[in-house]
Amino acid sequence: MTTTPATTPSVAPVDARVPVRRLVPLAAQHVLAMIAAPVSTVFLTSGALRLSPGATASLLSAVLVLCGAGALLQSLGVWKIGARLPFVMLPGGAATALFLQIAQEHGTPTAAGSVLLAAALLLAVLPLYARIVRLFPPLVMGVTVLLIGIAMIRVAARLVTGPDGTGEPSAVLLAALTVLATVAAYLLLRGVWRQTAVLTGMAAGTLLAVVTGIGEFTPAAGSGFALPALLPYGAPRFDLLAALPLLIFSLTTLAEITGQTVMNSETVGRTPDPGRDVPRVARADALVSLMGGLFGTSLMVTSAENVGIGRLTGVRSRFVTAAAGALLVVAGLTTPVSRALAGIPEAVVGGSSLVVYAVIAVMGVEMLRRADLSAASGGPMAAALALAAGLLPLLVPGLYDGFPGWARTVLGSAVVAGTLTAVLLTPLFARFSVPSDEPPPVRSD
Protein backbone atom coordinates (compact mmCIF):
# COMPACT_ATOMS: atom_id res chain seq x y z
CA MET A 1 0.00 0.00 0.00
CA THR A 2 1.30 3.43 -0.97
CA THR A 3 0.86 6.30 1.43
CA THR A 4 0.88 9.93 0.52
CA PRO A 5 2.89 12.09 2.90
CA ALA A 6 0.86 14.70 4.71
CA THR A 7 1.38 18.21 3.47
CA THR A 8 2.12 20.95 5.91
CA PRO A 9 -0.06 24.01 5.43
CA SER A 10 1.99 26.89 4.11
CA VAL A 11 2.52 29.79 6.49
CA ALA A 12 2.04 33.32 5.21
CA PRO A 13 5.34 35.27 5.16
CA VAL A 14 3.97 37.78 7.66
CA ASP A 15 3.30 34.96 10.15
CA ALA A 16 6.53 33.06 9.56
CA ARG A 17 8.80 32.44 12.54
CA VAL A 18 12.40 33.60 12.20
CA PRO A 19 15.33 31.68 13.76
CA VAL A 20 16.89 33.48 16.71
CA ARG A 21 20.27 33.83 14.99
CA ARG A 22 18.56 35.91 12.28
CA LEU A 23 15.90 37.46 14.50
CA VAL A 24 18.25 39.44 16.75
CA PRO A 25 20.22 41.30 14.03
CA LEU A 26 17.06 41.94 12.00
CA ALA A 27 15.28 43.31 15.07
CA ALA A 28 18.31 45.42 15.97
CA GLN A 29 18.24 46.88 12.47
CA HIS A 30 14.66 48.09 12.99
CA VAL A 31 15.57 49.57 16.38
CA LEU A 32 18.58 51.44 15.04
CA ALA A 33 16.60 52.75 12.07
CA MET A 34 13.96 54.35 14.29
CA ILE A 35 15.83 55.12 17.52
CA ALA A 36 16.72 58.69 16.51
CA ALA A 37 13.06 59.75 16.43
CA PRO A 38 12.16 58.96 20.08
CA VAL A 39 15.53 60.12 21.40
CA SER A 40 15.47 63.43 19.52
CA THR A 41 11.82 63.97 20.49
CA VAL A 42 12.68 63.54 24.16
CA PHE A 43 15.57 65.99 24.05
CA LEU A 44 13.43 68.48 22.11
CA THR A 45 10.73 68.20 24.77
CA SER A 46 13.26 68.45 27.58
CA GLY A 47 14.79 71.61 26.13
CA ALA A 48 11.45 73.30 25.47
CA LEU A 49 10.05 72.49 28.91
CA ARG A 50 13.38 72.94 30.73
CA LEU A 51 13.24 69.53 32.38
CA SER A 52 15.87 68.41 34.87
CA PRO A 53 18.36 65.68 33.87
CA GLY A 54 16.48 63.19 36.03
CA ALA A 55 13.16 64.08 34.46
CA THR A 56 14.71 63.84 31.01
CA ALA A 57 16.08 60.36 31.73
CA SER A 58 12.69 59.28 33.04
CA LEU A 59 10.92 60.64 29.96
CA LEU A 60 13.42 58.90 27.65
CA SER A 61 12.79 55.65 29.50
CA ALA A 62 9.02 56.11 29.19
CA VAL A 63 9.15 56.86 25.47
CA LEU A 64 11.33 53.85 24.65
CA VAL A 65 9.16 51.51 26.72
CA LEU A 66 5.99 52.83 25.07
CA CYS A 67 7.55 52.50 21.60
CA GLY A 68 8.40 48.91 22.42
CA ALA A 69 4.98 48.15 23.86
CA GLY A 70 3.36 49.66 20.77
CA ALA A 71 5.49 47.56 18.40
CA LEU A 72 4.62 44.42 20.37
CA LEU A 73 0.92 45.28 20.37
CA GLN A 74 0.79 46.05 16.64
CA SER A 75 2.91 43.05 15.64
CA LEU A 76 1.33 40.37 17.84
CA GLY A 77 -2.16 41.78 18.34
CA VAL A 78 -4.52 41.26 21.27
CA TRP A 79 -8.20 40.71 20.44
CA LYS A 80 -9.11 43.58 18.06
CA ILE A 81 -6.14 45.71 19.10
CA GLY A 82 -3.17 45.66 16.75
CA ALA A 83 -3.28 44.60 13.10
CA ARG A 84 -0.72 41.76 13.41
CA LEU A 85 1.49 43.49 10.88
CA PRO A 86 5.22 44.34 11.21
CA PHE A 87 4.85 47.87 12.58
CA VAL A 88 6.82 49.99 15.03
CA MET A 89 5.50 52.91 17.06
CA LEU A 90 6.99 56.35 17.64
CA PRO A 91 6.12 59.66 19.28
CA GLY A 92 4.52 61.68 16.48
CA GLY A 93 6.65 64.64 15.37
CA ALA A 94 3.68 66.90 14.56
CA ALA A 95 1.89 65.73 17.68
CA THR A 96 4.93 66.59 19.80
CA ALA A 97 5.04 70.09 18.34
CA LEU A 98 1.36 70.58 19.20
CA PHE A 99 1.94 69.14 22.68
CA LEU A 100 4.73 71.64 23.32
CA GLN A 101 2.62 74.49 21.97
CA ILE A 102 -0.18 73.63 24.40
CA ALA A 103 2.29 73.17 27.25
CA GLN A 104 3.89 76.58 26.66
CA GLU A 105 0.54 78.36 26.32
CA HIS A 106 -1.54 76.53 28.94
CA GLY A 107 0.90 74.55 31.09
CA THR A 108 2.15 70.95 31.07
CA PRO A 109 -0.83 69.52 33.03
CA THR A 110 -3.17 70.85 30.30
CA ALA A 111 -0.90 69.40 27.61
CA ALA A 112 -1.01 65.99 29.30
CA GLY A 113 -4.80 66.25 29.59
CA SER A 114 -5.00 67.15 25.88
CA VAL A 115 -3.15 63.94 24.97
CA LEU A 116 -5.66 61.91 26.98
CA LEU A 117 -8.61 63.70 25.33
CA ALA A 118 -7.19 63.22 21.83
CA ALA A 119 -6.55 59.51 22.39
CA ALA A 120 -10.06 59.03 23.79
CA LEU A 121 -11.56 60.84 20.77
CA LEU A 122 -9.69 58.55 18.38
CA LEU A 123 -11.16 55.52 20.15
CA ALA A 124 -14.64 57.04 20.06
CA VAL A 125 -14.76 57.68 16.29
CA LEU A 126 -13.46 54.27 15.22
CA PRO A 127 -16.94 52.67 14.88
CA LEU A 128 -17.56 55.13 12.02
CA TYR A 129 -14.44 54.20 10.11
CA ALA A 130 -15.95 51.31 8.15
CA ARG A 131 -18.49 53.71 6.65
CA ILE A 132 -15.85 56.02 5.23
CA VAL A 133 -13.29 53.45 4.06
CA ARG A 134 -14.65 53.80 0.50
CA LEU A 135 -13.16 57.31 0.50
CA PHE A 136 -9.68 55.77 0.22
CA PRO A 137 -9.34 54.25 -3.30
CA PRO A 138 -5.90 53.49 -4.84
CA LEU A 139 -5.47 57.08 -6.05
CA VAL A 140 -5.91 58.46 -2.53
CA MET A 141 -3.67 55.78 -1.07
CA GLY A 142 -0.98 56.44 -3.66
CA VAL A 143 -1.00 60.15 -2.89
CA THR A 144 -0.90 59.46 0.85
CA VAL A 145 2.01 57.01 0.70
CA LEU A 146 3.99 59.17 -1.72
CA LEU A 147 3.57 62.19 0.59
CA ILE A 148 4.54 60.09 3.61
CA GLY A 149 7.78 59.14 1.87
CA ILE A 150 8.54 62.71 0.75
CA ALA A 151 7.72 64.17 4.18
CA MET A 152 9.96 61.60 5.85
CA ILE A 153 12.80 62.35 3.43
CA ARG A 154 12.57 65.95 4.62
CA VAL A 155 12.72 64.76 8.24
CA ALA A 156 15.77 62.63 7.44
CA ALA A 157 17.43 65.58 5.71
CA ARG A 158 16.93 67.67 8.87
CA LEU A 159 18.93 65.08 10.79
CA VAL A 160 21.81 65.83 8.44
CA THR A 161 21.47 69.59 8.09
CA GLY A 162 20.09 70.48 11.52
CA PRO A 163 16.85 72.38 12.16
CA ASP A 164 18.03 75.51 10.29
CA GLY A 165 18.60 73.55 7.07
CA THR A 166 22.22 74.66 6.62
CA GLY A 167 24.29 71.53 7.04
CA GLU A 168 27.98 71.35 7.76
CA PRO A 169 29.96 69.77 4.88
CA SER A 170 31.25 67.11 7.26
CA ALA A 171 27.67 66.08 8.19
CA VAL A 172 26.60 65.91 4.55
CA LEU A 173 29.72 63.86 3.74
CA LEU A 174 29.06 61.48 6.62
CA ALA A 175 25.45 60.97 5.50
CA ALA A 176 26.61 60.33 1.93
CA LEU A 177 29.19 57.78 3.11
CA THR A 178 26.49 56.03 5.13
CA VAL A 179 24.27 55.83 2.04
CA LEU A 180 27.18 54.47 -0.01
CA ALA A 181 27.94 51.87 2.66
CA THR A 182 24.27 50.81 2.69
CA VAL A 183 24.19 50.50 -1.10
CA ALA A 184 27.48 48.58 -1.12
CA ALA A 185 26.17 46.17 1.51
CA TYR A 186 22.96 45.66 -0.47
CA LEU A 187 24.86 44.96 -3.70
CA LEU A 188 27.73 42.86 -2.37
CA LEU A 189 26.28 40.87 0.51
CA ARG A 190 24.22 37.73 0.00
CA GLY A 191 21.64 35.76 1.94
CA VAL A 192 20.96 36.77 5.52
CA TRP A 193 23.71 39.39 5.48
CA ARG A 194 22.10 41.28 2.61
CA GLN A 195 18.98 41.63 4.74
CA THR A 196 20.96 43.72 7.23
CA ALA A 197 22.14 46.29 4.67
CA VAL A 198 20.69 49.23 6.61
CA LEU A 199 22.21 48.02 9.89
CA THR A 200 25.56 47.46 8.17
CA GLY A 201 25.43 50.93 6.64
CA MET A 202 24.73 52.54 10.03
CA ALA A 203 27.54 50.61 11.70
CA ALA A 204 29.95 51.54 8.90
CA GLY A 205 28.86 55.19 9.05
CA THR A 206 29.40 55.36 12.82
CA LEU A 207 32.82 53.69 12.49
CA LEU A 208 33.82 56.12 9.73
CA ALA A 209 32.68 59.04 11.87
CA VAL A 210 34.91 57.97 14.75
CA VAL A 211 37.95 56.97 12.66
CA THR A 212 38.01 60.01 10.36
CA GLY A 213 36.87 62.55 12.93
CA ILE A 214 34.05 63.91 10.76
CA GLY A 215 31.54 62.87 13.42
CA GLU A 216 31.40 61.86 17.06
CA PHE A 217 29.91 58.95 18.95
CA THR A 218 28.75 60.73 22.11
CA PRO A 219 26.34 58.81 24.36
CA ALA A 220 23.93 60.97 26.34
CA ALA A 221 25.22 62.13 29.70
CA GLY A 222 24.14 60.45 32.89
CA SER A 223 24.53 57.19 34.76
CA GLY A 224 22.46 54.64 36.58
CA PHE A 225 18.85 53.71 35.92
CA ALA A 226 15.69 55.81 35.63
CA LEU A 227 12.31 54.12 35.38
CA PRO A 228 9.33 55.96 33.87
CA ALA A 229 7.61 58.33 36.30
CA LEU A 230 3.81 58.31 36.45
CA LEU A 231 2.18 61.77 36.02
CA PRO A 232 5.51 63.67 35.86
CA TYR A 233 3.68 67.01 35.40
CA GLY A 234 1.12 66.42 38.13
CA ALA A 235 -2.58 65.69 37.72
CA PRO A 236 -3.78 66.24 34.10
CA ARG A 237 -6.01 69.26 33.45
CA PHE A 238 -8.74 68.99 30.79
CA ASP A 239 -9.51 71.99 28.58
CA LEU A 240 -11.33 71.26 25.30
CA LEU A 241 -10.41 74.56 23.64
CA ALA A 242 -6.75 74.25 24.57
CA ALA A 243 -6.78 70.65 23.36
CA LEU A 244 -8.37 71.49 19.99
CA PRO A 245 -5.14 71.25 17.93
CA LEU A 246 -4.43 67.74 19.21
CA LEU A 247 -8.09 66.73 18.85
CA ILE A 248 -8.05 67.71 15.18
CA PHE A 249 -4.72 66.01 14.69
CA SER A 250 -5.98 62.74 16.19
CA LEU A 251 -8.83 62.66 13.65
CA THR A 252 -6.59 63.40 10.70
CA THR A 253 -4.20 60.58 11.69
CA LEU A 254 -6.79 58.13 10.35
CA ALA A 255 -5.75 59.10 6.83
CA GLU A 256 -2.08 58.39 7.53
CA ILE A 257 -2.90 55.18 9.39
CA THR A 258 -4.89 54.00 6.36
CA GLY A 259 -2.02 54.65 3.97
CA GLN A 260 0.54 52.99 6.21
CA THR A 261 -1.67 49.96 6.83
CA VAL A 262 -2.32 49.41 3.12
CA MET A 263 1.36 49.95 2.35
CA ASN A 264 2.49 47.51 5.02
CA SER A 265 -0.09 44.91 3.97
CA GLU A 266 1.13 45.05 0.39
CA THR A 267 4.76 44.85 1.51
CA VAL A 268 4.17 41.61 3.43
CA GLY A 269 1.93 40.10 0.73
CA ARG A 270 -1.35 40.35 2.62
CA THR A 271 -4.44 41.54 0.77
CA PRO A 272 -5.17 45.04 2.19
CA ASP A 273 -8.34 45.19 4.28
CA PRO A 274 -8.56 48.74 5.70
CA GLY A 275 -12.02 48.18 7.15
CA ARG A 276 -10.65 45.45 9.40
CA ASP A 277 -7.04 46.47 9.99
CA VAL A 278 -7.13 50.28 10.28
CA PRO A 279 -9.38 50.30 13.38
CA ARG A 280 -7.09 47.72 14.96
CA VAL A 281 -4.02 49.85 14.27
CA ALA A 282 -5.80 52.98 15.54
CA ARG A 283 -6.97 51.25 18.73
CA ALA A 284 -3.39 50.31 19.55
CA ASP A 285 -2.27 53.88 18.81
CA ALA A 286 -4.98 55.27 21.07
CA LEU A 287 -4.29 52.90 23.96
CA VAL A 288 -0.53 53.49 23.91
CA SER A 289 -1.20 57.25 23.63
CA LEU A 290 -3.41 57.05 26.72
CA MET A 291 -0.45 55.53 28.53
CA GLY A 292 1.77 58.22 27.04
CA GLY A 293 -0.45 60.94 28.49
CA LEU A 294 0.04 59.39 31.91
CA PHE A 295 3.83 59.24 31.52
CA GLY A 296 4.42 62.69 30.05
CA THR A 297 4.65 62.04 26.30
CA SER A 298 2.57 63.30 23.41
CA LEU A 299 0.49 61.08 21.11
CA MET A 300 2.19 57.86 20.02
CA VAL A 301 1.66 56.89 16.40
CA THR A 302 2.29 53.77 14.37
CA SER A 303 5.06 54.58 11.94
CA ALA A 304 6.17 53.58 8.45
CA GLU A 305 9.80 53.83 9.61
CA ASN A 306 10.27 50.08 9.27
CA VAL A 307 8.22 49.42 6.13
CA GLY A 308 11.05 50.46 3.84
CA ILE A 309 13.40 48.10 5.68
CA GLY A 310 10.96 45.25 5.12
CA ARG A 311 10.79 46.14 1.46
CA LEU A 312 14.58 46.30 1.12
CA THR A 313 15.35 43.12 3.03
CA GLY A 314 12.43 40.99 1.87
CA VAL A 315 11.83 39.87 5.49
CA ARG A 316 8.08 40.13 6.07
CA SER A 317 7.66 38.45 9.45
CA ARG A 318 5.84 40.42 12.14
CA PHE A 319 7.89 38.58 14.73
CA VAL A 320 10.92 40.65 13.72
CA THR A 321 9.22 43.91 14.75
CA ALA A 322 7.86 42.17 17.85
CA ALA A 323 11.44 41.34 18.79
CA ALA A 324 12.38 44.96 18.04
CA GLY A 325 9.64 46.01 20.47
CA ALA A 326 11.11 43.75 23.15
CA LEU A 327 14.56 45.27 22.57
CA LEU A 328 13.06 48.76 22.95
CA VAL A 329 11.43 47.84 26.25
CA VAL A 330 14.76 46.47 27.52
CA ALA A 331 16.56 49.61 26.30
CA GLY A 332 14.00 51.81 28.04
CA LEU A 333 14.38 49.99 31.34
CA THR A 334 18.18 49.84 30.99
CA THR A 335 18.88 53.54 30.82
CA PRO A 336 22.63 53.30 30.02
CA VAL A 337 21.69 51.40 26.86
CA SER A 338 19.29 54.11 25.75
CA ARG A 339 21.92 56.77 26.44
CA ALA A 340 24.43 54.85 24.32
CA LEU A 341 21.93 54.59 21.45
CA ALA A 342 21.55 58.33 21.61
CA GLY A 343 25.23 58.61 20.72
CA ILE A 344 24.86 57.48 17.09
CA PRO A 345 25.67 60.54 14.95
CA GLU A 346 22.52 62.15 13.60
CA ALA A 347 24.04 62.38 10.13
CA VAL A 348 24.49 58.59 10.09
CA VAL A 349 20.85 58.02 11.06
CA GLY A 350 19.81 60.63 8.52
CA GLY A 351 21.74 58.95 5.73
CA SER A 352 20.23 55.54 6.48
CA SER A 353 16.76 57.06 6.78
CA LEU A 354 17.07 58.71 3.36
CA VAL A 355 17.39 55.27 1.77
CA VAL A 356 14.45 53.81 3.69
CA TYR A 357 12.11 56.76 3.10
CA ALA A 358 12.94 56.97 -0.61
CA VAL A 359 11.82 53.37 -0.95
CA ILE A 360 8.52 54.32 0.69
CA ALA A 361 8.01 57.17 -1.79
CA VAL A 362 8.56 54.74 -4.67
CA MET A 363 5.89 52.49 -3.19
CA GLY A 364 3.47 55.42 -3.42
CA VAL A 365 4.33 55.81 -7.10
CA GLU A 366 3.62 52.10 -7.60
CA MET A 367 0.20 52.52 -5.99
CA LEU A 368 -0.61 55.49 -8.22
CA ARG A 369 0.21 53.35 -11.26
CA ARG A 370 -2.61 51.00 -10.21
CA ALA A 371 -5.10 53.88 -9.94
CA ASP A 372 -7.37 55.03 -12.75
CA LEU A 373 -5.32 57.87 -14.20
CA SER A 374 -7.10 58.10 -17.53
CA ALA A 375 -7.85 61.64 -18.69
CA ALA A 376 -11.58 60.90 -18.92
CA SER A 377 -11.79 59.95 -15.22
CA GLY A 378 -10.21 63.16 -14.03
CA GLY A 379 -7.74 61.11 -12.02
CA PRO A 380 -4.63 62.97 -13.21
CA MET A 381 -6.09 66.33 -12.16
CA ALA A 382 -7.22 65.01 -8.76
CA ALA A 383 -3.81 63.48 -8.10
CA ALA A 384 -1.99 66.62 -9.28
CA LEU A 385 -4.00 68.97 -7.07
CA ALA A 386 -3.72 66.63 -4.08
CA LEU A 387 0.06 66.43 -4.48
CA ALA A 388 0.23 70.21 -4.79
CA ALA A 389 -1.76 70.64 -1.57
CA GLY A 390 0.53 68.17 0.20
CA LEU A 391 3.81 69.55 -1.14
CA LEU A 392 3.03 73.21 -0.43
CA PRO A 393 3.60 73.04 3.35
CA LEU A 394 6.85 71.14 2.72
CA LEU A 395 8.16 73.61 0.14
CA VAL A 396 6.86 76.76 1.85
CA PRO A 397 6.82 75.94 5.60
CA GLY A 398 5.49 79.35 6.70
CA LEU A 399 2.65 79.47 4.18
CA TYR A 400 -0.12 79.07 6.75
CA ASP A 401 1.46 80.90 9.70
CA GLY A 402 -1.19 83.62 9.59
CA PHE A 403 -4.08 81.17 9.72
CA PRO A 404 -5.93 80.06 12.89
CA GLY A 405 -4.35 77.21 14.81
CA TRP A 406 -6.82 74.57 13.67
CA ALA A 407 -6.24 75.53 10.02
CA ARG A 408 -2.46 75.37 10.47
CA THR A 409 -2.87 71.89 11.94
CA VAL A 410 -4.77 70.59 8.91
CA LEU A 411 -3.24 72.57 6.04
CA GLY A 412 0.28 72.60 7.44
CA SER A 413 0.58 68.80 7.45
CA ALA A 414 1.66 67.46 4.07
CA VAL A 415 0.03 64.08 4.53
CA VAL A 416 -3.21 65.44 5.96
CA ALA A 417 -3.61 68.26 3.43
CA GLY A 418 -2.80 66.05 0.45
CA THR A 419 -4.94 63.15 1.59
CA LEU A 420 -7.99 65.27 2.39
CA THR A 421 -7.68 67.00 -0.99
CA ALA A 422 -7.54 63.63 -2.73
CA VAL A 423 -10.51 62.37 -0.71
CA LEU A 424 -12.60 65.40 -1.74
CA LEU A 425 -11.55 65.65 -5.38
CA THR A 426 -11.51 61.99 -6.43
CA PRO A 427 -15.30 61.44 -6.17
CA LEU A 428 -15.94 64.94 -7.52
CA PHE A 429 -13.97 64.32 -10.72
CA ALA A 430 -15.46 60.84 -11.00
CA ARG A 431 -18.96 62.34 -10.79
CA PHE A 432 -18.30 64.75 -13.66
CA SER A 433 -16.10 62.46 -15.74
CA VAL A 434 -16.94 62.01 -19.41
CA PRO A 435 -16.88 58.68 -21.25
CA SER A 436 -13.80 58.22 -23.40
CA ASP A 437 -14.25 57.94 -27.15
CA GLU A 438 -11.07 55.94 -27.46
CA PRO A 439 -11.51 52.24 -28.24
CA PRO A 440 -10.28 49.80 -25.61
CA PRO A 441 -6.74 48.54 -26.15
CA VAL A 442 -6.39 45.34 -28.16
CA ARG A 443 -4.55 42.58 -26.35
CA SER A 444 -2.17 40.41 -28.28
CA ASP A 445 -1.63 37.03 -26.73
TrEMBL record:
Protein topology in the membrane: Multi-pass membrane protein
Keywords, ordered alphabetically: Cell membrane, Membrane, Transmembrane, Transmembrane helix, Transport
Highest taxon of source: Bacteria
Transmembrane segments: 31-49, 55-73, 85-104, 110-129, 136-157, 169-189, 196-215, 235-255, 319-341, 347-368, 380-400, 406-430
Family statement drawn from the similarity comment of this UniProt entry: Belongs to the nucleobase:cation symporter-2 (NCS2) (TC 2.A.40) family.
PANTHER family on file: PURINE PERMEASE C1399.01C-RELATED, URIC ACID TRANSPORTER UACT
Protein name, as recorded: Solute carrier family 23 protein
